[in-house]
Design a protein that fits this description.
Length: about 260
């Protein structure tokens, strides 16, 4: 297995073929086979039960990946800091061009693929690069990937390893309702036995993710009246919990969600 987690991030000096990460949302689809994907005007990254399909900006990039029989997958905490990486090659995957264009990376070991899925769900962007040069084939934003991957794992069952974040049941307690065009029901629970830094879980319309609590979310600024705690989700979501008198509410995005049970 060639995958690495770095405790100290390092700045990358990469000659980019794409200036910024693809600005789109991750989507889960159950047909024709379960998959989670993100698509931009020039490239696509698709996750299936045991493999990745990547459509780079140019067909020559597909040929280059298959000719070299390797691709480096870098997981980025932000625009310059690498949290970990995985090098897919002959020893741990099968790489081929399918349907005339996409590169398919079929993983031989379920643990390797589970590692990749965990890192995609937890970080800010993923960088698919050449194995022998600091040149990038494509960068994709990972906003919303946690929820899409959770749905993918649930659909794949035994075909994909299940991460610890997918094992939690939805919390039971105060339910918060509200939203704009999309109505949501939100619940959270503080864990008695934290999973590392993840000491809470949050459920949005039944989809549950791990979260970290933050009592000093506002830094040196005085917090708003009634502020209890901030919940920072592993999918980069942020929830602010408030209680004042008999009122309980939660703020998520630009909306307020009031207790509804």
């Amino acid at each position: 297995m060639k995958h690495h987690i770095r405790t100290v991030g390092r700045a990358l000096a990469i000659s980019l073929t794409m200036a910024t990460a693809a600005s789109a949302e991750w989507v889960y689809s159950s047909t024709p086979t379960p998959n989670a994907y993100i698509q931009s005007s020039t490239s696509t990254l698709e996750l299936q039960c045991d493999r990745i399909r990547f459509v780079p900006a140019g067909y020559e990039d597909s040929q280059d990946i298959v000719t070299k029989q390797g691709i480096l997958i870098r997981f980025m905490k932000n625009g310059t800091t690498e949290a970990g990486s995985f090098q897919a090659g002959r020893e741990n995957a099968e790489l081929q061009i399918v349907d005339n264009y996409p590169v398919e990376v079929a993983f031989k070991n379920a643990e390797d693929y589970s590692f990749v899925l965990d890192q995609i769900a937890a970080n800010a962007s993923v960088d698919l690069s050449m194995i022998d040069k600091d040149v990038t084939y494509g960068i994709f934003d990972l906003k919303g990937s946690g929820s899409a991957i959770k749905n993918l794992r649930a659909a794949c069952g035994g075909s994909a390893s299940i991460s610890s974040s997918a094992e939690y049941e939805a919390p039971e307690g105060v339910v918060y309702c509200g939203g704009g065009g999309i109505k949501r029901q939100i619940e959270y629970a503080i864990l008695e036995n934290p999973d590392g830094d993840w000491d809470a879980i949050v459920s949005v319309n039944g989809d549950t993710v791990r979260a970290m609590t933050a009592n000093s979310y506002f830094g040196n600024s005085e917090p708003p009246k009634g502020f209890v705690v901030a919940l920072l989700g592993e999918d980069r979501s942020e929830f602010l919990v408030f209680k004042e008198g008999s009122e309980n509410w939660l703020e998520y995005g630009d909306y307020r969600y009031d207790q509804c049970n």
